[in-house]
Amino acid sequence: MANSNIKLIYFNQPGRAEAIRLLLAAAGKAYEEVNVNLDQWQEMKPSAPCGTIPIIEVDGKRFGQSRAIATYLAREFDLYGKESLDGLKIDQTAQVAEDFIMEFANKYYFVKESDKKDEGAKTLKEETAPKYLGFFEKYIREEGTGFICGSKITLGDIVVFDICTGFLKPFIDDSLSSFPLVQALVKMVESNARIKQYLATKKSS
């Protein structure tokens, strides 16, 4: 895998591909990114492996589904723990994050009526975000190392970081101070040398 050629195909935005980018940054793995617009994506969609985006290309072979891609990369680059139970903890965290994203989609993103959208935003801030941040806080506390799993950054930590700093951030900011372990984890991931460099490059581009 270290010598594999990796190409990431996605829109020119963080979205569903950001955890993948963060993983590749943490691994120090060089890759090519191809950004497409909506018209280009519509042309590509019928031939996409899963009919969804992002897509990763490994030595010319294409694969879909963001969580599957992230898990594959985490395993390949030693960001998935050491034991089977570590993988379970990481997958649990990733699935909880996925549940949070789905609630966001159903309560806000896909809602058309402005009054219902406002109601959804209120619910996300006051109820949904504290619920899921509470899960993450519990996992970190139970692990006792400051990480989701073990004593170094894994996919689990990157998932939590992405949730707290990505497109859900506006719904999380009001609650984050009530979850000090999650806050500390976000700062810890952000201070990782490779991730810090990636974020600085991203900010300047």
UniProtKB/TrEMBL annotation:
A biological-process GO annotation: glutathione metabolic process
Domain GST N-terminal: 4-81
Source organism, top-level taxon: Eukaryota
Gene3D superfamilies in the cross-refs: 1.20.1050.10, Glutaredoxin (3.40.30.10)
InterPro entries in alphabetical order: Glutathione-S-Trfase_C-like, Glutathione-S-Trfase_C_sf, Glutathione_S-Trfase, Glutathione_S-Trfase_N, GST_C, GST_superfamily, Thioredoxin-like_sf
One Pfam family linked to the record: GST_N
PROSITE patterns for the chain: GST_CTER, GST_NTER
Molecular functions per Gene Ontology: glutathione transferase activity
Domain GST C-terminal: 83-205
Protein name: Glutathione S-transferase
Organism listed in the record: Elysia crispata
